[in-house]
Specification:
Structural class: alpha/beta
CATH topology of the largest domain: Rossmann fold
Low-confidence stretches: none
Largest sheet: 6 strands, parallel
Strand order of the largest sheet: 2-1-3-4-5-6
Order of helices and strands: EHEHHHHEHEEHEHEHEHEHEHEHEHHH
Distance between the termini: 11 Å
Mean pLDDT: 89
Oligomer: single chain
Number of domains: 2
Number of helices: 16
CATH superfamily of the largest domain: Glycogen Phosphorylase B
Radius of gyration: 21 Å
């Protein structure tokens, strides 16, 4: 089977989910082509698209939340008045480039983990370009604005109990596949903490808190570090790891502000996040859909901080309601009590049990198996 997987670099979650699907396809010996459709114009153009979005979220998260709310209202209106969205309208040139590419290559299936790519494919469908079956993979625990505008043959959603949420935006239930958000196999492999620590050069005798602002490095990281340092004063066995993502400004400021703090370790962009999760006692992060799912797949106790308004509020609520995380709504008041709770063996085991009950770590594999069966039925 020949598969085309599309994503965009507006945050790492979409790409990580896409890579998990690529991994599952390749493990079953299928041929896979994976790229950002904006790179068909140029790599520079694709990077500009990604960085423009990232800078917007990094520097003005509250404004992003307001834009999201407007988009959400517009998207709900589309169920009554089918007016194309601005996101759809700007995809014309890229859709022509992708049309030319697809006409020169054979594919049995197209899978995308990003709205922009879904809108590009929708333009092609509306032009009656012949396409193989298209699968859209949602990477948040809600229906994001304009997803319902995407003309996909199937929508992979994070969980069966979200079917009504997606249907409320106009997505037909018969097109939904509640397989979950795809994660790389490494996140659910049984890696011993000592082995994981050694793999990334950590001290096997130490315990670690892992802080993340997602791939774009945002969130209330400074206050989180300060409160954890207070905790460490009486818990010498602990140290702090910070995944700074692609936020070089954050990395430089943390280096300056915490110079000489030997219990704080800053981690630049890495392909070994799963090792850091497996090596850590508690994961503290903003609730990106993908990073939250990875935490659940890795079975690491999870404390949510500072969601970006929009999808991440919904992710936080979903994980809290299902017992898969503690939502720390006020870092100064609630972080340390949450840390103490998550160190309790009974609390930890209860959260891990919730992870196992609600998250399928083999979502990518289930999707590929489904595609294989559908492809076989067509042939």
């Amino acid at each position: 089977m020949e598969a085309l997987v599309l994503s965009c670099s507006t945050g790492g979650g979409h790409n990580s989910a896409a890579k998990a699907i690529v991994q599952a396809l390749q493990e079953r010996h299928h041929k896979v082509t994976f790229f950002d459709p904006y790179s068909l114009k140029s790599t520079h153009f694709a990077n500009v698209i990604g960085m423009t979005y990232i800078k917007f979220v990094q520097h003005t998260p509250d404004l992003f939340g307001k834009v999201y709310a407007l988009g959400d209202a517009y998207s709900r209106m589309q169920t009554k008045i089918p007016v194309p969205s601005p996101v759809y309208a700007v995809q014309n040139k890229t859709s022509k480039l992708l049309e030319n590419y697809i006409s020169e290559h054979h594919f049995d299936v197209i899978i995308t983990t990003h709205l922009f790519c879904g809108e590009i494919l929708t333009r092609l469908k509306r032009k009656h370009v012949t396409l193989p079956p298209v699968y859209f993979v949602a990477t948040d625990y809600t229906c994001s604005p304009f997803v319902a505008e995407v003309q996909a043959d199937h929508f992979v959603i994070p969980a069966a109990d979200l079917e009504d949420t997606f249907a409320g935006y106009g997505i037909p239930k018969e097109k939904m596949l509640p397989f979950g958000i795809p994660t790389l196999a490494q996140f659910h492999e049984d890696i011993a903490p000592d082995k994981a620590k050694r793999a990334v050069g950590l001290d096997p005798k130490k315990k670690y808190f892992l802080i993340s602002g997602g791939s774009i490095g945002v969130g209330d990281i400074y206050d989180t570090i300060d409160h954890l340092l207070t905790f460490i004063l009486s818990h010498k066995e602990y140290e702090i790891l910070v995944l700074v993502g692609n936020n070089l400004h954050l990395y430089e400021n943390l280096m300056i502000n915490y110079q000489g703090v030997h219990v704080l370790h800053l981690i630049k962009p890495t392909d070994h996040v799963y090792y850091y999760m497996k090596a850590s006692e508690i994961f503290i992060s903003k609730p990106g859909g993908l990073s939250s799912t990875e935490a659940a797949a890795a079975a690491i106790p999870y404390a949510i901080i500072t969601p970006i308004p929009g999808c991440e509020d919904k992710n936080a609520a979903y994980f809290e309601q299902h017992g898969m995380a503690i939502w720390v709504k006020d870092v100064s008041q609630d972080l340390l009590p949450a840390i103490i709770r998550l160190q309790d063996p009974a609390e930890k085991e209860q959260m891990i049990a919730a992870d196992r009950a609600n998250i399928d770590p083999d979502a990518a594999g289930k999707l590929v198996e489904y595609i294989e069966k559908k492809n076989s039925d067509l042939n």
